């Protein structure tokens, strides 16, 4: 069988050539059909700037929490018999402040290392001893508040 000039000796060369051409067409068509919907560089920058300005506006409209003397809540007075306080945090810090205002020596004792015990106190016109009982109940089996003559102690178990 005579071969026309220019075709190699492979028997299925025409099929391979057709398949290769079809794959090349599909690949280039797939790449060009994805529409890249990119705007002009100026439009993109403007859209990003508008989004950032909107986000900054929302953040600035949120209520602020400041430690400034004008905005800070008055410190609770633990020296009186009737106490009003809202506190969330470490019990040792809270009890240290209570002891300081009552002119008591404050100590923390017990096994080391000590994990902080977080308490939540929201008292309005509460008696001093009732406040300490409430704090002590929040400790569960982890610690106790001990009150003595001239001292207050947080005893970890």
TrEMBL record:
InterPro entries: DotD, DotD_sf. It comes from the Bacteria. This is Uncharacterized protein.
């Amino acid at each position: 069988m005579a071969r026309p000039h220019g075709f190699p000796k492979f028997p299925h060369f025409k099929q391979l050539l057709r398949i290769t051409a079809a794959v090349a067409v599909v690949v280039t068509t797939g790449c060009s059909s994805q529409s890249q919907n990119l705007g002009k560089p100026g439009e993109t920058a403007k859209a990003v700037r508008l989004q950032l300005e909107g986000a900054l506006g929302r953040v600035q409209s949120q209520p602020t929490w400041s430690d400034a003397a004008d905005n800070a809540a008055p410190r609770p007075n633990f020296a009186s018999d009737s106490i009003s306080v809202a506190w969330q945090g470490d019990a040792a810090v809270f009890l240290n402040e209570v002891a300081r205002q009552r002119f008591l020596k404050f100590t923390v004792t017990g096994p080391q290392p000590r994990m902080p015990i977080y308490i939540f106190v929201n008292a309005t016109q509460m008696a001093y001893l009732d406040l300490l009982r409430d704090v002590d109940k929040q400790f569960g089996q982890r610690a106790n508040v001990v009150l003595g003559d001239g001292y207050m102690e947080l005893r970890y178990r």
